Fold this sequence. Notes:
The chain has helices at residues 10-22, 33-42, 59-68, 84-93, 105-119, 152-163, 171-178, 189-201, and strands spanning 2-6, 26-30, 47-51, 75-80, 97-101, 126-129, 132-135, 140-143, 146-147, 206-209, 213-216. By secondary structure, it is of the alpha/beta class. The strands form 3 sheets. Strands 2-1-3-4-5 form a 5-stranded parallel beta sheet, sandwiched between helices. The chain has a 4-stranded antiparallel beta sheet with strand order 6-7-8-9, with helices on one face. Strands 10-11 form a two-stranded antiparallel ribbon. Strand 6 and strand 7 form a beta hairpin. Helix 2 (33-42) packs parallel to helix 3 and helix 6 (152-163) crosses helix 8. The longest helix is centred in the middle third of the chain and has 15 residues, at 105-119.
Amino acid sequence: MRILVVEDDVNLNRQLVEALQEAGYVVDKAFDGEEGHFLGETEPYDAVILDIGLPEMDGITVLEKWRAASRVMPVLILTARDRWSDKVAGIDAGADDYVTKPFHVEEVLARIRALIRRAAGHASSEIVCGPVRLDTKSSKATVEGVTLKLTSHEYRLLSYLMHHMGEVVSRTELVEHLYDQDFDRDSNTIEVFVGRLRKKLGVDMIETVRGLGYRIQAPAK
């Protein structure tokens, strides 16, 4: 899953980026509204953390421009404690949720997990597909109760497929959502990770749809 953090406070930006990366996300960052708006308009994100008080272009304007351009990724806005009007303006502009500063990073992580789940149509923090269970809270996966030992890339791949189970996901979409904007988009590593993941799952669940991509679904009984 790929997240964009738009926050002008350097320390807070770094804190959020590090926490998200430790939780298994790929993270891009921006420090002003113009850069954030450009990234959000040109790159595919599974969720965005957007500060309201940004230089160059304020967060509300950024969000309004995204929604006007039909950018539908979930957006979590960061607001000041005493500015209730920012919360209202943010929600009206198209925000999906908000967190008030100062906040605990754990709360931000929990809200991001929830936004991504809901956007994919999942209500629970645990996503189940046949014998595979993905715990989005702990970033762990099990097969018939046995914990899988996955690399960060393998986990991201499994998580994205599980969030979109039953859907055909193209290789391009996987690359766009599993790597940051500096990654070599011509790499063939997706195929390598799919092969490794299939071996570790030990069950026939990841289908290659010729010419289209991959799909994960529960094995036929």
